[in-house]
Amino acid sequence: MNADRESDHDMTHGDIAVLLATAADEVRIGPAPCQALVRGGRRRRARRWALAATAALVVAGSTGTLAVAGVTGDDAQRVAPAATRPPVSDERHLYAPWSSDLARGTEHGKKWKVVIYVWGAPRDRTEAQRQLDAMTDSGFEKPGVQPSTASGLVGKSAYFVRLTLDGRTTTRMRGSFEKGDNAFQQSAAMPLATTKTATSGSDERLVVGQVSTTAQEVTCTWDDATTTTASRPAPGTGIVGDFEDAIRPADGSPSDWYVCVGPEGRTFRTVAVTK
Fold first, then answer.
1. d(Cα 275, Cα 273) in Å, to the nearest integer?
2. pLDDT at position 145
3. CA distances from 3 to 8, 11, 17, 22, 150 (A)
4. What's the CA angle centered on 259, arms 100 and 112, to 5 degrees?
5. Rounded CA gap, 183 and 180, in Å?
6. What are the pLDDT digits (tens) for 169-215?
7. Residue 118 within a domain
8. Which chain regions cross the lipid bilayer (predicted)?
């Protein structure tokens, strides 16, 4: 290109046409990069698919809450996955019993305690069968009902009285409550010994039994005619100290329960409500 022409401001249309033609001759136009464009598109698609797959895996594996798409911040609606929701509580205690401590103490340096477990009353045979399965899984024997099958439990709440002595737990009483049942006359006497020398019928000086909620005093008589009196502690008073001969309520039980302990070497004879 002529330098004089670049500085000449009086160029004609012909001069401009010549310059444009010369510039066009200097441009080299190659073939369109079609293959490169196609390869680039494929790479972008592959990246999008990988990102989408990763996001799906994260959502599927998440145990947290999920925000509704398009809503962020405090306005986000969150939905908890069904698997993280807590189970419905067993308010009727069909599958996990109430438990109440009735007494505890120490015998020759060995700890002991008496605990009652009460299972709620099933309404039908399906609930009763599930309850029997739960009892078995929890290490409880079959309840003392007739018949000793699921149908025998319908409409009844079952109870187990267990003694733990020197780390060993045994069931000493079992039975059931029926609606409107006011005949609270069940009782059991058991040895309170940390050796295996005690046998049934001797040294049975730990007595547990049912009593009406209106009873104020129970008297246990031993084989030497001595007596032990169990009475009610002050309302709201729990087990204080090592042991008290006492009458106490038990969660889930329509009756109250008494425990009395006789002198060492004595054996239970009779019991009576004296107030």
1. 6
2. 79
3. 9, 13, 17, 15, 113
4. 70
5. 9
6. 999 999 988 766 555 567 899 888 766 555 555 678 999 999 999 99
7. yes
8. 49-71
C-alpha–C-alpha distance, residues 177 and 184, integer Å: 10
What Rg, from alpha-carbon coordinates, does the chain have?
43
Burial class for 38, CB neighbours closer than 10 Å (0-12, 13-18, 19+): exposed
Q: Are 127 and 94 in contact (CB under 8 A)?
A: yes
Give a yes or no: residue 266 inside a domain.
yes
Is 224:265 a contact under the CB 8 Å cutoff?
Answer: no
* Residue 114 belongs to some domain of the structure: yes
> Contact, 243 vs 253, CB < 8 A?
no
CA–CA distance, 23 with 229 (Å, rounded to integer): 124
Cα 53 to Cα 59: distance, rounded to the nearest angstrom: 10
What is the per-residue pLDDT across 112-139, written as a single tens digit (0 to 9) for each?
Answer: 999 999 999 999 999 999 999 999 999 9
Tokens of 212: 């009406």
End-to-end CA gap in the chain: 132
Residue-wise pLDDT tens digits, 32-69: 554 554 455 566 655 555 555 444 444 344 443 333 33
Q: Which two tokens stand for residue 104?
A: 């505890």
Q: Name the E strands within the chain.
A: 66-67, 78-79, 98-107, 110-119, 156-165, 168-178, 187-190, 206-211, 217-222, 227-231, 246-248, 256-261, 268-273
Q: Let me know if residue 264 belongs to a domain.
A: yes
Specify the amino acid at residue 256.
D
Domain count, the chain: 1
Rounded average pLDDT over 151-172? 92
